[in-house]
Structure prediction request, 799 residues.
Amino acid sequence: MKVKNRRMMTAPLAALLFLLVFPLFVSNDYYLHLMILALMWVMIGSAWNLLAGYTGQVSFGDAAFFGTGAYTAGLLVNHLGWSPWWGIPLGGVTAALLGLPFGWICFRLRGAYFALATLALNEIMRHIATIWESLTDGMVGIMILQTFYAPIDSPIGELSSKTPYYYIILFMAVFSVSTVIWVMNSKLGYYFLSIREDQDAAESLGINTHYYKMISLGIAAALTGLAGGFYMNYMGFIDPETVFSLHDISIMAILVGIVGGVGSVYGPAVGAFIMVMMQEAFRTGGFGLLDAFAEYTGSQFVATSASLITGAHVLGFGVLVVLVIRYMPNGVVGDWSRLMKFILGRFQRQV
Amino acid sequence: MRKLVTLLFMGFILAGSLALTSEQARAADPIKVGILLPITGKHAKFGEIEKLSFEMAVAEINKKGGVNGRLIKLIIEDTTGKPDVGRSAAEKLISQDKVVMLGGGYSSSVTAATAGVAINKGFPFLVNTGSADIITQPTAHTPSGKKAAKLKKSLKKEKDKAKIAKIKKEIAAFQARADKEVERILPRFSIFRLNPPVSEYASGLEGFLAEVVKPKTVAILHENSLFGTKGAASFEKSAKRLGIKVLLKEGYDAGAVDFKPLLAKVKSKNPDLVYMVSYILDASLLMNQSMELKMNPKLFAGAAAGFTLPEFKENAGKASEKVVSATLWHQSLPLPGAKEYFDKFRKKYNRDTEYHGAEAYSAAYVIADVLKRAKSHKAKDIRTALAQTDMMTVFGPVKFVSYKQMINQNKLETYVVQWIDGKLRMIWPKNLSKTHYVYPVDWLKERK
Prediction:
């Protein structure tokens, strides 16, 4: 697992440098918002990858930990009057506290059975948050004030209230990716890999697989919980449907991992950017470029097809995901060399 | 490889210049207004009827010369009915499309989430459907205020003097924080709402129940959503006022496919009235399955939303017949242009419209009026112009006032409609209705 050659480090470091200076050049709130979401998904995807990609325990219930983190932050504000920022570290702790006993019970199950158990955990948490109205306010959700406001009536695009959020989540994303690198380079990483490859063989070598699976789940849950705490701070509004959503959180976490590359350190990071940007690009018709093109050419046909494509965005996005999984089973990062060969090969032949 | 890079680079420049030229071309003419609606997803039907109405209204306004010689251009963004997507859409409209104000806002939870974006920037947002009371309550955005109120309630039960002193201290601390928060939020509280809040949806129905149906017991079913929960809670209060006993109040998950266990429970309690707060699919399914279970209460009543859409009749068929619902608008109301709007909509799209469409249609006219009156199209001036709105629309008079902790809230009457022979007829209040209500109803006979 050790990052041996220098070349492997250049791309991530260049990307980090780019991300560090990004807000200095782009002050458009919309792009910053998308970057913040993508960075949040880097965290969740990396955490999922640690558990599923490296330890081989596929989770369908990341939303349980994400929502727990988010609700920790929200409830601290609502009931104790604390600053929601405490919710970030404490959200990580509560998510881990939820994950550990769950793992202790459910890691007796293997493969698909464990995945089903995580799915159930997701639903259980959602129902608790919905029904326990005296604590969580149920479906009314929790609304809090954001901490960072732009000065009132500052011209749109000149002063952004998002820059502080951006750097906070960038720091958190870097923290999670480094945690994964650190874990996978330590002794723990070898235990995790051996469990993924063959649990019985690992057991026979004297590895307490149950214990190490729990550790893996604990770290993953904590990282996801941190992201949840951040979500509450940033979005200012949560309800059970949003943060415990099977489709929008749990499945999205899996897609981020798979599209980026399961079992590669930077895979989920790349996957997060691809998924968030693609989803938005499909929803808005290529960030409005399609509409601009239709207006530029003035052709009714382009305008109609632009509105049709935008209208079918969920479908288009779904098809794309299917294609990626079909033709790049190791994800964009895992199949990068193949992908480049494919594109370059085509290109060279044409030339 | 180098050639590939060059090619890509050229492509980017081309795309960029394309976007730029169109930006320049646009800058001169139309005023851009952003509309947030669910075009896809579970609320798509509501989004569609509002979208069509918005487009129709703007086409009319532009035909008459637009606003001060400039045309209005709507940029409709799909929220997909999800709060976080709604937020992305709002950010895009404000920062990238540079719209001058926001409109639309369907479903309470999406509106509550997007309102956050608008408040953060002090950006004007005219909500026309999202109905939870908290959307226009600045104090609801301040959790400390809510906590202080809760503590005050608990104070009444407490007897121990030491504890009372402690709680009082806590209340003071929370209140101080709440005041600070409200102080911070008030100057930028830029949310204006055209439609009545959900707590008033049933006020028209209350009269009908008190004078005609006189039920003794009620079962309340609601969707587990911000709108559903709040609607059910406020009807529970109405029931208490009217002396109706609540036998059952239960939420269900949106998009459920089998309501029979729930309905069987209702049937076994045998309530006089079954009151439902549901969006469209659940509303029709509830009625269909209540027919299959041969339920026969005195009255089935819905809390607007899903029960007035034309699709309700299409999906529920004869199970929709004689169902009563609260509503915010009906074409037969003596409002200027109401009937014309209904007929025009029918002619143009060959389908019926109802209160959601009327809300959107009126919102477009309010937006045009505001843009006409605003000194400039800066956020501040539009906020001021919105606050001074006083006009008549097909949806009723629009004037933003403060009451019940809500600010910038339009105050309107609500009405009662009934599905009679496949047509949505207004039946209450009596003096405004042309159709007489059908009551009592034998549901078993009705649905044979």
